[in-house]
Amino acid sequence: MGRDGLRVPGSACSRPPKPGGPAFASVGYAAKVFDLFSSWNCDEAEDRDGNIRLSLIIEGNGNYTVYISPNTTRPTAESFFQHGDALKAGPKHGREHQKLIIMMTFCKLFPFAPGSLAHRFIEERRQDPDRPFWLQAFRYAGGKIEMLYDIKPILMWKITIKERASLTRQDPEFTFLRHGNKPLTF
After folding, report:
1. Which pLDDT tens digit goes with each residue over 76-103?
2. Which stretches within the chain are classed as H helix?
3. Non-local CB neighbours of 35 within 8 Å, separated by 6+ positions
């Protein structure tokens, strides 16, 4: 069953997906960010292919970091590169397609506070990694968090949950090690 009481498409899961996601101070900003997330997923309501890369990294110091970014291997990026390759008419020195990607990554460090729902979410994902969940916008105001029902959520099927110590150079989150999870300033 989904949020609206309907069965989750293609799911044999008997339990409904739970919502989770970032909390914003501004409803307008939340709507713009979720429009961006939706564009990464080709404006689809469900992300089975991992177009949105969502990861939760357990830092080992009583904290965890959440990363949200577009997946560099999503079909739209691959299609763009194939189009670029087709444009070059044979080998020409200095005209090799470099396939560079510049993207935004949302990154936030959080404490594992007593009673944190993050503990429960991680445990549930480890017990049932194939269970989808709703990437949902929330509003944080006056010390309270409320779900923003007017912002369309995205049904997510993939999330990476890893310990910081187990990251390798192939993990996009690895590059953040050099900066100690501090915002980059220019």
Report:
1. 767 767 767 776 666 666 666 666 667 7
2. 27-40, 75-87, 117-127
3. none
> Domain total for the chain?
1
The answer to whether residues 137 and 22 touch, using CB atoms and an 8 Å cutoff, is yes
pTM over 0.90: no
| Domain assignment present for 12 | no
Note the pLDDT tens digit of each residue in 132-183.
Answer: 999 999 999 998 999 999 999 999 999 999 999 999 888 888 877 655 555 4
* 81 vs 70: which has the higher pLDDT: 70
Contact 64, 58 (CB under 8 A): yes
In a domain, residue 135? The reply is yes
Q: Compute the distance between CA of residue 176 and CA of residue 47 in angstroms, rounded to an integer.
A: 25
Within 10 Å of residue 91's Cβ, how many Cβ atoms? 7
| Alpha-carbon distances of 14 from 49, 91, 155, rounded to whole Å | 21, 54, 16
